[in-house]
């Protein structure tokens, strides 16, 4: 019975397409956010071909300052991106997935400094922005035409700091993400070693209420988190500790059950964990690590307990792999090497989770955020 359930989980994307009576797509769009302090000028779109793993340039929109993180609306018609600057802003764009064309709609203040993460709810009522330097999360409403309204709420840890005096002198919000059922908003605070938890009520004037939090080991620096396929477990990558924390999750409550390192045995160099993503079939978890490691680590996920077991580590052939994305069919992984102005495509062995180099490389200035979406 367990084997049958596992096979169903692995094939669920195929079942979804069959139910929709749509053929398996031959391509997807890959939307890339960048820093514009170098050669890049904004957001770029590539066509990704599922059979070969090849990427072809489609379009870009210039004049967008530091769109270092972005999100795409559920209906695939709008892109929302942070503008990571001291006087933080958030920009809204219309998106034509067939052509890759992006058009600017409007922008608003992020109500903080250096926004680094953005998410949008499924109903497209609000976006949630994590302002890193000023430490707060802001809520901005989404209008019917996809434009953004003025911010309606901010939340912040008014107290707290960590043991690292250089990086944890105060709150630093690093991720703002909704729970799978969208009843809660979680935001990771690198500066105070917390996952902050708020009840989310979309229709309220102040939609975030009932704050609480879960703490991790002091000095870890929570960065990004990911959910297991069954939504019963949460995986948290800590930037400063270079660990993955595993939690059992139920209705806004976290219970820590495992901590597993990203580092090789005996390694004492400098590292900084970055992105964390689950394979589409839920069997493997991948995490990127930067600075002196520059690799992607793969873990096998126990389908009953959610626990992790180390599988492999793969060099990214570049510096500072800030983000990566796994194609929706789980065959390829694309990594963004921020420090060496490149993207590389790796083949995923779906039986073992291991990565192998394809030789496909894209030269691109300061890539830092990758999002796959339907090319239609």
From TrEMBL:
Signal sequence, renumbered to the chain: 1-18
Family annotation (Gene3D superfamilies): YVTN repeat-like/Quinoprotein amine dehydrogenase
Entry keyword annotation includes Signal: yes
Residue spans of biased composition, Basic and acidic residues class: 155-172
InterPro entries recorded: Cycloisomerase_2, Haem_d1_sf, Lactonase_7-beta_prop, WD40/YVTN_repeat-like_dom_sf
Keywords, ordered alphabetically: Carbohydrate metabolism, Glucose metabolism, Signal
Top-level taxon of origin: Bacteria
GO biological process, one term: glucose metabolic process
GO cellular component: cytosol
Disordered: annotated span: 153-174
GO MF term set: 6-phosphogluconolactonase activity
Family, as annotated: Belongs to the cycloisomerase 2 family.
Protein name per UniProt: Lactonase family protein
Native source species: Mucilaginibacter ginsenosidivorax
Classification lineage: Bacteria, Pseudomonadati, Bacteroidota, Sphingobacteriia, Sphingobacteriales
């Amino acid at each position: 019975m367990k084997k049958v359930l596992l096979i169903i989980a692995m094939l669920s994307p195929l079942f979804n397409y069959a139910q929709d009576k749509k053929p398996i797509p031959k391509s997807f769009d890959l939307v890339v956010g960048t820093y514009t302090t170098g050669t890049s000028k904004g957001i770029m779109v590539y066509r990704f071909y599922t059979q070969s793993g090849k990427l072809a340039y489609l379009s870009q929109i210039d004049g967008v300052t530091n769109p270092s993180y972005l999100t795409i609306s559920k209906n695939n018609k709008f892109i929302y991106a942070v503008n990571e600057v001291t006087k933080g802003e958030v920009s809204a764009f219309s998106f034509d997935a067939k052509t890759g064309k992006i058009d600017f709609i409007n922008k608003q203040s992020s109500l903080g400094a250096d926004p680094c993460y953005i998410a949008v709810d499924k109903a497209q009522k609000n976006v949630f922005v994590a302002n890193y330097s000023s430490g707060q999360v802001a809520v901005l409403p989404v209008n019917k035409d996809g434009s953004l309204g003025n911010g309606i709420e901010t939340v912040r840890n008014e107290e707290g700091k960590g043991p690292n005096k250089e990086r944890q002198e105060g709150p630093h919000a690093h991720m703002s993400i909704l729970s799978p059922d969208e009843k809660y908003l979680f935001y990771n605070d690198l500066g105070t070693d917390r996952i902050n938890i708020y009840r989310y009520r979309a229709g309220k004037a102040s939609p975030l209420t009932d704050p609480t939090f879960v703490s991790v080991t002091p000095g870890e620096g929570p960065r990004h988190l990911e959910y297991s396929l069954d939504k019963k477990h949460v995986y948290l990558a800590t930037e400063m500790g270079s660990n993955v924390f595993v939690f059992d999750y139920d209705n806004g409550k976290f219970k820590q059950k495992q901590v597993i390192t990203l580092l090789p045995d005996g390694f004492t160099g400098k590292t900084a964990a970055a992105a964390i993503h689950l394979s589409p079939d839920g069997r493997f978890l991948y995490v990127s690590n930067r600075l002196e490691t520059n690799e992607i680590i793969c873990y096998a996920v126990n389908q009953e307990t959610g626990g992790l077991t180390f599988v492999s580590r793969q060099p990214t052939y570049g510096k500072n792999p800030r983000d990566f994305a796994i194609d929706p069919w789980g065959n390829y992984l694309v990594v963004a090497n921020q420090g060496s102005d490149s993207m590389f495509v790796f083949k995923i062995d779906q039986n073992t989770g291991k990565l192998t180099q394809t030789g496909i490389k894209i030269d691109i200035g300061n890539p830092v955020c990758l999002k796959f979406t339907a090319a239609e």
